[in-house]
Design brief:
The structure holds two protein chains of two kinds. In chain A, the strands form two sheets. Chain A has a six-stranded mixed beta sheet with strand order 8-3-2-9-1-10, with helices on both faces. In chain A, strands 4, 5, 6 and 7 form a four-stranded mixed beta sheet that branches. Helix content of chain A is 56%, strand content 16%. By secondary structure, chain A is an alpha+beta fold. The two termini of chain A are 29 Å apart. Chain A has two domains: 196 residues, no CATH class; 208 residues, no CATH class. In chain A, helix 10 packs parallel to helix 13 and helix 12 runs antiparallel to helix 13. Chain A has 14 helices and ten strands. In chain B, 34% of the residues lie in helices and 25% in strands. Chain B has eight helices and ten strands. In chain B, helix 6 links the parallel strand 7 and strand 8. The chains are: A alpha+beta, B alpha/beta. Chains A and B meet through helix 1, helix 11, helix 12 and helix 14 of A and helix 2 and helix 3 of B.
Chain lengths: 418, 254
C-alpha cells in the first residue's frame, strides 16, 4: 500500500463525511454510546484503583497486622470467632521479642463508644489504645498538633489524638488543640488531629481516635478484648522475612503445636484488594453488557451507512477502477471511511464524557459523599483505549460493505447513472 | 484489405486473436463477440463503428482491460491479458490505457486538477510530481486556467477535455474513447475531435468507439462491427485532418 493511496483515502473519507454530516453523526451514534460506556467504566474503575492505592499508602504497604480476625474474611467465620483473644500480654511479649521488624505496636480497640464535647455528644467512635510509636507509622501522621510522646505513653496521660472526621464533627469552629473531650466520664486533652486518610471507600480510618494504651485500659478495662499488633517491616522486600518470623513467634507465644492451624491471622493491605475486586466486578458486569449491546448497535449503524455509501458511489468506484484503482485500494477506502466515522464517534464520546465526568465529580460528592473517589479528569489512557476500540469497531463494521464495493465489476459500475 | 497483416511499426501494441465473449443471461447465452482478430499498432488512429448490439462496447471493454474475453487470446504489449488477475488488469489500465467516456465520468466533488491527478495517485506518484504532470496535462488540453474548477462549474466540452487530460497524464500506450462527442453539441464535438487529431499527430495511439460517421471520419482506419464480427476493416482514404488554426486555437485557448 502506497502512502499516496492511504492519504488519498483519508481525504476521501473526510470529504464523504462532510457531505453527509447529519447522516454520519447518526451512523456513529451507536459508537458514541458504546465508547461512552467504555470511558465511564474505565473512569469509575480507575477511581477505585486510585482509592485502593491511597488506602494502601495509609495502611502502609510494608505493614502486617496480626489479629484474631481475618480481613479477607474468606475463611470460616465460625472458626475465626472461636479463636482465643490475643491478650495484651501476648501482644507485648510479641513486640518485645520480634527481631526483624522495624516496629511492632499493640493496638487495643473499642467500637461504638460516645464522645462528648461541651454539650455535644457523638456516637459510633472507635477508640484505639496504642504506643507512642504509632506516630512513626503512616497511619499516625498528624494534620494539626502532635501525637502523644513516649513519656505520656509511659505514664498513661489522658491525652487524645482525634481522627479527621471526629474533629470535623466535634469542633465545628475554633481550634481543637487544648480542648477537653469526655469519654466514659473521663476528661481527655486533645493534642492533635490525624491527617485525613480515608478515601471515601475506606473512611472508617477517619473515625478513629488514638490514646496511650494505659489510659485506654483505665477507661475500657484491661481484658476482655483481642489486641492486634501492627508490624512495620521497614520495606516491602523485608515483608516475607518478617511475616515468617511473626508467624513462628506468635505460634510459640500462643503454644500452637506443630501441625495445628494458626489461631490468628496475619493481615496485609492485599486483603483490601478482594473488597475492591467485588466492586470492580459489579461495575464490569453492569457495564460490559450495555457496552457490547451498544457496540452491536454501533456496528450495525456504521455497516448500514457504509452499504448506502457503497451503493451511492458505485459510479465513483467504477471511475476509480477504470483509471487503475486496485481492489485493495477501494477496499481500503471504505474501511478507512468506516474507521474514521467510528473514530469521530469516539472523539465526540470522549468530549461529552469529559464534560459529564467533570460535572459529576464536582457536584455529586456534595450529595453522595461515597462518590468522592471519582476524579474530575478522565485518565488519558482512556482516550487511547477509546481510539483503538473505535477504530477496530469501525473497521469491523466497514469490512463487508468494503469488500462488496471492491468486488464490483468496473463495467457494471461505470454503467450506473449516479 | 487485411490491415492485420501489415507490419508497420514493428510489433503491435494490441494483438487480439479469435476472441469471443459470451454472457449468460438466465438460461440463454448471448454471444456479444463471436470471433474477432485485430492488431493495433503504435500511432494508429482507429474508429470502431457499428450499430448497438454489434459488440462494440464489449470489444472496447476488452481492449480497455475492463473485461476479459471468454475465448481467444489478447496480448497487450506481449502480455497475455486473458490470463491476468484483477489487480494486474487494474495496473494495465492505470499505466497503459487512457479512458475517455461519453459521460465524461469525472469525480463530481474533486477539482479538475484532482481528477487529472487520480491515475497518478494510484500509480504511486509523489505529490509534487503529480501536481506538475497534471498541470502539464491541463495545459495540453487548454484548461490551465480551470484547474481549481469542479466539473459542475465547467461546460460539457471543458469537462471532456479534463477527461482527456486525465487520460493523457500517465502517458498511456493507447487512448480509448467511447463516444467522446455523444453528449456534446456538434461545434464542441468538433473541437474535441480536433484535439484528438492533435494528440494523434503528437504520436499518440487513439481508438474511438462511435456510431457517428462524422466522428469516424477523423480516424485513419475504420473497423465496422456487426453481430459480434468484424464486417469491414479498412483505411479511411478520406481522413479528415483539420489544420484549421481558428478551431485549433479555440481548443487550446478556451
Amino acid at each position: 500500500m502506497k502512502l499516496s493511496e492511504i492519504s488519498e483515502n483519508i481525504k476521501i473519507a473526510f470529504e464523504a463525511m462532510s457531505v453527509n454530516k447529519l447522516r454520519s453523526l447518526l451512523a456513529s451514534l451507536g459508537v458514541v454510546i458504546g465508547i461512552s460506556f467504555v470511558i465511564l467504566m474505565g473512569w469509575v474503575l480507575s477511581g477505585l484503583d486510585q482509592a485502593l492505592e491511597d488506602t494502601f499508602n495509609i495502611i502502609g504497604t510494608d505493614m502486617l497486622y496480626i489479629d484474631k480476625w481475618d480481613w479477607a474474611g474468606g475463611r470460616n467465620w465460625k472458626k475465626v470467632r472461636q479463636r482465643k483473644n490475643i491478650t495484651y500480654n501476648q501482644a507485648t511479649e510479641f513486640c518485645e521479642k520480634i527481631k526483624n521488624a522495624e516496629l511492632a505496636i499493640p493496638n487495643a480497640r473499642e467500637f461504638g463508644y460516645r464522645i462528648k464535647y461541651k454539650n455535644e455528644e457523638f456516637q459510633g467512635m472507635t477508640f484505639i489504645g496504642t504506643k507512642w510509636e504509632h506516630s512513626l507509622t503512616p497511619a499516625g501522621a498528624t494534620f494539626i498538633g502532635r501525637h502523644f510522646t513516649q513519656f505520656e505513653d509511659d505514664i498513661g496521660s489522658n491525652v487524645i489524638v482525634l481522627g479527621y472526621k471526629v474533629n470535623q464533627a466535634l469542633m465545628v469552629e475554633g481550634d481543637p488543640l487544648g480542648q477537653y473531650v469526655k469519654i466514659e466520664g473521663r476528661k481527655f486533652l486533645v493534642i492533635g488531629v490525624i491527617k485525613k486518610q480515608g478515601t471515601m471507600l475506606f473512611d472508617f480510618v477517619d473515625n478513629q481516635c488514638f490514646m496511650p494504651i494505659k489510659s485506654f485500659q483505665s477507661v475500657f478495662g484491661k481484658s476482655g478484648r483481642s489486641v492486634s499488633i501492627a508490624i512495620k517491616a521497614g520495606s516491602i522486600n523485608n515483608l516475607d522475612e518478617v511475616r515468617a518470623e511473626s508467624e513462628g513467634l506468635m505460634r510459640q507465644i500462643r503454644n500452637i503445636k506443630p501441625g495445628e492451624e494458626n489461631d490468628f491471622s496475619i493481615n496485609e493491605t492485599k486483603a483490601f484488594e478482594s473488597t475492591v475486586e467485588v466492586l470492580r466486578l459489579s461495575v464490569w458486569s453492569v457495564g460490559i453488557g450495555m457496552t457490547v449491546l451498544s457496540f452491536l448497535v454501533g456496528i450495525i449503524g456504521i455497516m448500514n451507512i457504509m452499504f448506502v455509501s457503497v451503493t451511492e458511489r458505485t459510479k465513483e468506484i467504477g471511475i476509480r477502477k477504470a483509471v487503475g484503482a486496485k481492489k485493495r485500494t477501494i477496499w481500503m477506502q471504505f474501511i478507512i471511511e468506516a474507521a474514521i466515522l467510528s473514530f469521530v464517534g469516539a472523539i465526540i464520546a470522549f468530549i461529552g464524557c469529559s464534560a459529564l465526568v467533570y460535572l459529576v465529580a464536582t457536584f455529586l460528592p456534595k450529595f453522595v459523599p461515597e462518590t468522592a473517589f471519582l476524579s474530575p479528569v478522565l485518565p488519558y489512557e482512556l482516550l487511547l483505549i477509546a481510539s483503538f476500540v473505535s477504530i477496530f469497531v469501525g473497521m469491523l463494521a466497514g469490512l463487508i460493505p468494503a469488500v462488496r464495493g471492491a468486488n464490483l465489476d468496473p463495467v457494471e459500475a461505470l454503467r450506473r447513472e449516479n | 484489405m487485411d490491415l492485420n497483416e501489415e507490419n508497420k511499426n514493428g510489433k503491435p501494441i494490441i494483438d487480439i486473436e479469435h476472441i469471443a465473449k459470451i454472457y449468460q443471461m438466465g438460461s440463454e447465452f448471448v454471444h456479444a463477440i463471436r470471433d474477432i482478430t485485430l492488431k493495433i499498432y503504435k500511432n494508429d488512429y482507429l474508429a470502431i463503428m457499428g450499430p448497438s448490439g454489434s459488440g462494440k462496447s464489449t470489444l472496447m471493454n476488452i481492449i480497455g482491460c475492463l473485461d476479459t474475453p471468454t475465448k481467444g487470446k489478447y496480448l497487450f504489449k506481449d502480455m497475455d491479458v486473458s490470463e491476468m488477475t484483477d489487480n494486474d488488469l487494474a495496473s494495465i489500465r492505470n499505466k497503459e490505457i487512457g479512458f475517455v467516456f461519453q459521460t465524461f465520468n469525472l469525480l463530481a466533488r474533486s477539482s479538475s486538477l484532482k481528477n487529472v491527478e487520480l491515475p497518478l495517485i494510484y500509480a504511486g506518484v509523489g505529490k509534487s510530481e503529480r501536481d506538475d504532470r497534471a498541470m502539464k496535462a491541463m495545459e495540453n488540453v487548454g484548461l490551465a486556467d480551470r484547474v481549481n474548477h469542479k466539473p459542475n462549474e465547467l461546460s460539457g466540452g471543458q469537462r471532456q477535455r479534463v477527461a482527456i487530460a486525465r487520460a493523457l497524464v500517465t502517458e498511456p500506450s493507447i487512448i480509448l474513447a467511447d463516444e467522446p462527442t455523444g453528449n456534446l453539441d456538434s461545434k464542441t464535438g468538433l473541437e474535441i475531435m480536433n484535439l484528438f487529431n492533435e494528440l494523434w499527430k503528437a504520436g499518440n495511439t487513439i481508438i474511438v468507439v462511435t456510431h457517428e460517421e462524422e466522428v469516424a471520419r477523423f480516424a485513419k482506419r475504420i473497423i465496422k462491427l456487426r453481430d459480434g464480427l468484424i464486417e469491414n476493416d479498412s483505411f479511411n482514404h478520406h481522413q479528415r485532418i483539420t489544420n484549421d488554426t481558428s478551431t485549433t486555437s479555440s481548443v487550446t485557448n478556451q
